[in-house]
Specification:
The complex is a heterodimer. Chain A folds into 3 domains: 1-129, NAD(P)-binding Rossmann-like Domain (Rossmann fold, 3-Layer(aba) Sandwich), CATH 3.40.50; 145-280, Succinyl-CoA synthetase domains (Rossmann fold), CATH 3.40.50; 299-455, Rossmann fold (3-Layer(aba) Sandwich). Chain A is built from 16 helices and 18 strands. Chain A has helices spanning 3-6, 23-34, 77-87, 105-121, 165-178, 196-205, 224-234, 258-262, 265-276, 284-296, 312-324, 334-343, 362-372, 395-407, 419-430, 439-455; strands at residues 10-14, 38-42, 48-49, 52-53, 67-70, 91-94, 124-126, 132-135, 155-162, 182-187, 211-216, 240-244, 279-280, 305-309, 354-355, 380-384, 411-414, 435-436. In chain A, the strands form 4 sheets. In chain A, strands 8-10-9-11-12-13 form a 6-stranded mixed β-sheet, with helices on both faces. Chain A is elongated. The mean pLDDT of chain A is 94. In chain B, 34% of the residues lie in helices and 27% in strands. Chain B folds into 2 domains: 3-112, 2-Layer Sandwich (Dna Ligase, domain 1), CATH 3.30.1490; 118-229, D-amino Acid Aminotransferase, Chain A, domain 1 (2-Layer Sandwich). By secondary structure, chain B is of the alpha+beta class. Chain B has helices at 3-12, 20-28, 43-53, 82-99, 143-146, 158-167, 185-201; strands at 37-40, 57-62, 75-79, 107-112, 118-127, 131-138, 149-153, 205-215, 220-222, 225-229. Chain B has 7 helices and 10 strands. Classes of the chains: A alpha/beta, B alpha+beta. The interface between A and B is medium-sized, with 23 and 32 residues.
């Protein structure tokens, strides 16, 4: 059922208009640019809009309509939704605001009417008061922000669900800039019908989605338990990263018990996140850090992390950061030590973190990684490659791209610097090797990969 | 009396909080260990009950109008004989009369005194979004200051309950600290699961505090129980 939202054969845009800068125009332009199905503008004021025949009512459209997009003022929404119902339309995105979110009696009343009509005709609704859907595969794009203001990201496999429309559009714009691929994005606004549970289920089964990001302020009353149940199933297929906004206390409601006084909103969400097996991003930076590692890296079979570095200091920083995330860096086993001693100059340190020192070159890294990556007692490798040293000329990074396919072992890079770092970093990330600018962020991301590996039950050794 | 009747009566009488002996009876019905108790209406009854239960005992005021019993001198610990029981009964009546004049007195609870163990808090409440949830933490008077507690949404497994205990910052205390033996986590888990079931089965209950629960190496027992109802 939800598929009609994302892959409709035909859409009607109710409130389409030729007037510059209006929501009804931007959305129509979006569809004209990228959507391949049939488009029907609806507006009683026009015979034609942007070269397309315009209809007075959705009921006048001589063809079936899969999806209606409603952008008319709130007081008219019930009427046009009723028309859509009579026409037999099954899914609607209501972009218009002016409902419960206004806190007015009028808004509340209109929202109730809309709910009743949607139930009466069995119409599934996204919204109202939302940006709706951005679908990179089908071209459904109700984000009413023109291309000049919000860049559209390239096609990819991240889908996201956002309770905030503004956050969704900012994220899309930012991901476009960073070259991060996006599959589908939904801003559901007041969520009178389609909510987080419906969407994670849909994305869970969607083969164009490999990772789900959720920006959540709150679930609907009574939906918490079902959310946990459904999410538990989805995360066995693909990771869900959640950013929970509104973390501060529920306020000073006089509580009748200690339990009630301690059960802040966020505390309960934290429990739910854990029980559902979601990965929590604690900051905006983390949303992207965790996404890139979870999207590109194989799961970890254990917690044994090895570090290969050309900078002793960053090796120590990373050891601290990994330890703070609960990892214990294993000591290099004797057989490996012996092997490394044979290939490394005497001033290099073979104990984990393995320090190749400032006179390292590509070959030295490659030789060591060739020993490390095939080993069963190595669960992940962090390569610290500060590109300021003269010996790093790029061969290492070509090697890593090959090694990623050859060994399919989690491998991430820390790179700090200017042009060189940026150039190599971009190269690696395009090839699916995540690069981090700080040991702390790398450690946190690796921890998320390990946490997700535990959730998926692939960790054989804890 | 069974659980439903206890709850119905309280609601009928407009009491949001179950009286302590009622609360004990309710939790016992869900397999949660509570100390042996009896409600005394007279000093003589208190003495008899104390004798029957075995010393030491605690005497506590039971009143729908008193929420913090200790603050009004409504609790006397370490009562070790019949004579002391009579004395304690009279003393509590006197204290309550001066410090909480007009409070209705249902009686005085005689309760087997639990030996010192590790004090933990186990709680539960009904949340608008998640439904029944349970809480675990280190108990005592600082619980709201330290906020060292963990939560789970019901239903949960024994494994989840054990994990809740590992999650708190002070979890090392449960493993035995400075020569103390570790406490019985399975018994604590059983109480946590009992609280979850109690909330699931009785939609009239809004929240539960079991504080403290005394945890020992081989068992755990609830010392104080607070059950809050949702009045329509």
């Amino acid at each position: 059922m939800l598929d009609k939202f994302f892959n409709p054969q035909s859409v009607a845009i109710i409130g389409a208009t030729p007037r510059e800068g209006k929501v009804g125009r931007v959305i129509l332009e979006n569809f004209k640019k990228r959507y391949k199905g049939k488009i029907y503008p609806v507006n009683p004021k026009y015979e034609e809009v942007l070269g397309l025949k315009c209809y007075k009512s959705v009921k006048d459209i001589p063809d079936e309509v899969d999806l209606v997009i409603i952008v008319v003022p709130a007081p008219i929404v019930p009427k046009v939704l009723e028309d859509a119902g009579e026409k037999g339309v099954k899914v609607a995105i209501i972009i218009s605001g002016g409902f419960r979110e206004t806190g007015t009696e009028e808004g509340e009343k209109l929202e109730k009417q809309v709910i009743e009509i949607s139930k009466k005709y069995g119409i599934r609704v996204i919204g109202p008061n939302c940006l709706g859907i951005y679908d990179n595969w089908s071209g459904v794009d109700t984000f009413f922000l023109p291309d000049e203001k919000m860049m559209r990201p390239r096609k990819g496999y991240i889908s996201f669900i956002s309770q905030s429309g503004a956050f969704a559009s900012a994220l899309l714009d930012w991901m476009a800039l960073k070259g991060i691929g996006v599959s589908r994005a939904v801003s559901y606004g007041n969520k009178i019908d389609v909510d987080d549970i419906d969407l994670i289920e849909y994305f869970g089964e969607d083969d164009k989605t490999k990772l789900i990001i959720m920006y959540l302020e709150g679930l609907k009353p009574g939906r918490g338990r079902l959310f946990i149940e459904k999410a538990k199933k989805v995360v066995q297929q693909k990771p869900i990263i959640i950013y929970k906004a509104g973390k501060t206390a529920r306020g000073s409601v006089a509580a009748a018990s200690h339990t009630a006084a301690l059960a802040g909103n966020y505390e309960l969400y934290k429990a739910a996140i854990k029980q559902a097996g979601l990965i929590e991003a604690e900051s905006f930076d983390e949303i992207m850090d965790l996404s890139k590692i979870l999207l590109s890296q194989p799961l970890m079979k254990g917690d044994r992390v090895y570090v290969v570095t050309d900078a002793g200091g960053v090796g120590v920083m990373l050891t601290d950061a990994l330890t703070m995330q609960g990892f214990t860096l294993p000591r290099t086993p004797d057989d490996l030590k012996k092997e490394l001693r044979e290939i490394l100059p005497p001033h290099c340190i073979v104990e984990n973190p393995i320090d190749l020192t400032g006179d390292a070159d590509d070959k030295r890294y490659i030789d060591v990684l060739e020993k490390l990556l095939p080993r069963d007692d190595v669960d992940a490798v962090v390569v610290v490659a500060l590109p300021q040293i003269p010996g790093l000329k790029g061969e290492l990074f070509d090697y890593m791209v090959e090694a990623k396919t050859k060994y399919s072992k989690p491998m991430i890079v820390i790179m700090i610097g200017s042009h060189e770092a940026e150039k190599y970093g971009k190269f690696l990330e395009e090839k699916g090797i995540p690069v981090f600018e700080s040991p702390e962020r790398a450690a946190r991301a690796l921890k998320a990969l390990y946490a997700y590996s535990l959730i998926r039950g692939v960790v054989s050794r804890k | 009396m069974n659980v439903k009747t206890i709850i119905e009566n309280a609601i009928k009488e407009g009491r949001r909080k179950l009286l302590e002996h009622e609360a004990f009876e309710v939790i016992r019905a869900y397999g949660i260990p509570a100390p042996e108790t009896g409600l005394a209406k007279t000093p003589e009854e208190a003495a008899e009950l104390a004798d029957k239960i075995g010393y030491p005992v605690v005497l506590k005021i039971v009143s729908p109008d008193i929420s913090h019993k200790s603050d009004v001198g409504g609790v006397i610990l370490n009562v070790n004989s019949k004579e002391e029981a009579v004395e304690a009964f009279n003393k509590i009546q006197e204290n309550v009369k001066t410090k909480a004049p007009g409070a209705r007195i249902v009686g005085i609870l005689v309760q087997k005194m639990a030996p010192k163990g590790l004090e933990v808090i186990i709680g539960g409440l009904r949340d608008n979004i998640f439904g029944p949830v349970v809480m675990f933490g280190i108990g005592g008077i600082f619980v709201e200051v330290l906020r060292d507690v963990s939560f789970r949404i019901a239903p949960l497994s024994e494994e989840d309950a054990i994990e809740m205990m590992k999650e708190i910052k002070a979890s090392k205390l449960l493993e035995g600290y400075r020569g103390q033996p570790p406490v019985d986590k399975k018994s604590l888990a059983k109480i946590i699961l009992g609280v979850a079931r109690l909330l699931e089965a009785n939609p009239e209950i809004e929240s539960i505090d079991l504080n403290p629960v005394m945890a020992y190496p081989d068992k755990a027992i609830v010392v104080d129980a607070r059950v809050i109802l949702r009045l329509k």
